[in-house]
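Deviations from the work plan: none for this task. Representative record:
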Amino acid sequence: MTEWLSLFMEAATTIKEKTKTMFRSAQSGGMGEIGAGGDITHPIDTMAEEIVIRRLQDERIPCVLVSEEAGTRPLNGGGDDYVVLDPIDGTTNAVRHIPFYSTSIAHATGPHLSNVDAGLVMDLHNGTTFSAKKGEGARMNGVETTVSKTTEVEEAIISIELTHLGRVRNVARTLLPLMERSLKLRLLGSTALETAYVASGALDAFIDIRGLTRAVDLAAAAVIVREAGGFIVTPKGEKLDMMLTAPARTSFVASANRQLTAQIIELLKTASAET
Amino acid sequence: MTEWLSLFMEAATTIKEKTKTMFRSAQSGGMGEIGAGGDITHPIDTMAEEIVIRRLQDERIPCVLVSEEAGTRPLNGGGDDYVVLDPIDGTTNAVRHIPFYSTSIAHATGPHLSNVDAGLVMDLHNGTTFSAKKGEGARMNGVETTVSKTTEVEEAIISIELTHLGRVRNVARTLLPLMERSLKLRLLGSTALETAYVASGALDAFIDIRGLTRAVDLAAAAVIVREAGGFIVTPKGEKLDMMLTAPARTSFVASANRQLTAQIIELLKTASAET
C-alpha cells in the first residue's frame, strides 16, 4: 500500500529546493500560459507539477492526478486513487518574492472532497509542513497540532479573500460586519497555507465567500483542519463537499471551533439580509 | 560621527536572534501591558526595545529615543539626534507564529518625519533587510533596489490596512473601487515591512486610510521607499509629514511611481464623493 504522506513529503521537499534554485537563477518570471484551472501558469508551477508527475510515474503508482495546471490526468493506468495537487499555491507571492507560498497535495479514494483521506501543505519559503491522515489527527512539522480556543469574533484573527472583487458582487459588503468586529484581518495570498494555519491556531478562521476557491487549493488543507478539530463549512453553515476537478470552485469558511463558526455564519447572514 | 545604519543593522540582528530564542522557549505569550503608543505590549516588544536602548547607552550616543513602548525618552543627555523605533512591527503575527514581522529603526535630525535621513527595516523571520540613507538610494540585503514599473491599478498588487474597522467609519467603502480594480490585494500585518516591500517592487503600493499608522512604523520605511524612487503621500495626494512621537497617527499611500499614485488618489476620491 502506498504511503501517501511520505511520498507527498518527499515531492514537496524537492519542489521547495527546486523553487529556491529557480529564484536564484531568476527564471521564475517570464510570460505565463493559462492552466487547466483558468489561472496563469508560470514556469515554477509547471516545474513543480512535473516533479510530482515524475515521482508518481517512477514509483509506478496507478492514480488519477487532478492538478491546477494539467487538469485531470490518469497516470500508470489510472484507478480509484486520486492525487489532488496545487503545485504552487500563491504563485503571485512567489514571483514577487513575498515569502508566503506553498505546495498542497492530497490523496482521495474517490472524486469528491469528502473522499480525501490524507493531505500535506508545505510552506515553500521556510519549510513548515502541515499534514493529516483521516482519523489520526493533524501535525505541524511532525508534531500533533490543534485549532485555537478562540470562540469570539472580537478576539479572532481572520484571513479573508478579497482578490478579484471586480468579478464578484457584494463580497466586501457581505464581509463588512465581520471585518468590523474581528480583532485582526489578514490576506496573505495562499489559500492552502492560510487554511492550514487554522489547524495550528496561527489563524482562527479563513473565509472565501467569492466562490473562487479551487478544489486543488482546498483538498489537503480541509482534511488537515478537520483532523485538528476545526470546521470547514459553506458560508451558510452547511456541510461542504465538491468535485475534485481543476475547474471546480467553491466558497467556504474554515474555523477553529463550533462557537466561532456559528458567529461567523451569523454575521455573514446579517449582511446578506441587508443587501 | 555615528554610523547609524551599521548600528541599526547590529541591533536588528540581535533582536532577530533573541526573538528566535524566545519563541523556542515559548515565553513570547503571556499577558501584555499597554505601551506608550496605546497598543498591547508583549514581552518580545519589551525585549527588543531594551536591546536598542542598551546598545545606544553602551555606545554613549546622545539622542532622543522615540519608541512604541517607551514613548519619547532622552538617552545619554538627549540632543538633536532622534532614533525612531518600532521594536516589533507585527507583534500579533510574531505571537501567532505567522512568519511576517519586523524591526523598524530610523534616524532623524529633528522631530518630524521629514527629518528622517536613514532607516532600516528587517524581516525578523528570514532576515531580509531594507535600508536607505537620504541621497544614497535604497538597498535590499545590501544591494541597490528600486520600485516596480507597474503604472496601472489593474496590474498592481496592493496591500491595504483593514484592521480595527469598528473604530473607523467608511474605510471599506472608500477602498472598494480600488479593491475592485487592483490585480491582487494583500494584508500582511506589518506596516513597516509592507511599506518597505514597495521599495523592492514586491508590492506596488501600500495604503492605510484609517489614520492609524504610527510614526514609529513609518519613519524607516518612508525614507526607504522615497530613496527607491517611490512616493509617500496623504490619501489626498499631498505631501506627508508628521511629528515623530509614539502617539502620532496618520493615513498614507506608499506607491511605486507618479502614475500609479495619481490613479490610487483618484480612486480614493471617487469613493469619498459617493459617501
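Chain A has two domains: 4-144, 153-274.
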